[in-house]
Amino acid sequence: MDIKEIMKPENQVKAKSKLLTDVPMHYCPGCSHGVVHKLIAEVIEEMGIQENTVAVSPVGCAVFAYNYIDIDWHEAAHGRAPAVATGIKRLQPDKFVFTYQGDGDLAAIGTAETIHACNRGENFTIIFINNGIYGMTGGQMAPTTLEGMKTSTSPQGRDVSMAGFPLKIADMVAPLDGMRYVTRQSVHTPTAVRKAKKAIRKAFENQKDNKGGSLVEIVSTCNAGWKMTPAKANEWLVDNMFPAYPIGDLKNV
What we know:
By secondary structure, the protein is of the alpha/beta class.
């Protein structure tokens, strides 16, 4: 079967979401961001809420996310996405609002905004990409970097006596009364992708039901920052990231 035949709608097992633009993504080959973008686009399309969704993207690898998913976007300063999303949701409570943030943004400069928005139970969704490193700026150690993990600023491995322990954001916000749904997922296998999509859909459904805050953490790879092939990065994710950041629901009210 040639490529023209494969691309016919009747021969496609899964069509590209209409919300995904034709702009080539700038992410490194093997990066998890593109997969998560696909899931978000599919959920929004399936829920029929394209015209009623506003997303907030701050600084980081996903700074250009607005180029790839055809919805309304608002750019935020580094770490301030939850504060911006709070304003949007309070002014337009009928909108579906979500932030899309990496760990260098959400768990570092944006820690205060994240914790307080979650504590208030703001009725929007936080999608948190955790790859344990600063991906965009050169592979530096992040608050989520594992103990002993080598980065460009910890070439001998993270020393907890100097840098402290990895910051586990989902564990921190799950006990807060304002949070209704906190989960960790991944996108390293087809089964994991399906579970991650289900989690994103649930977070949006919770928002529709005005339940309060939801956080979906995606434990991800950064094969460029980790200096590995995509296949090796997936293996390293399972062997090293998952023990520190276990997959599954932390809170589901």
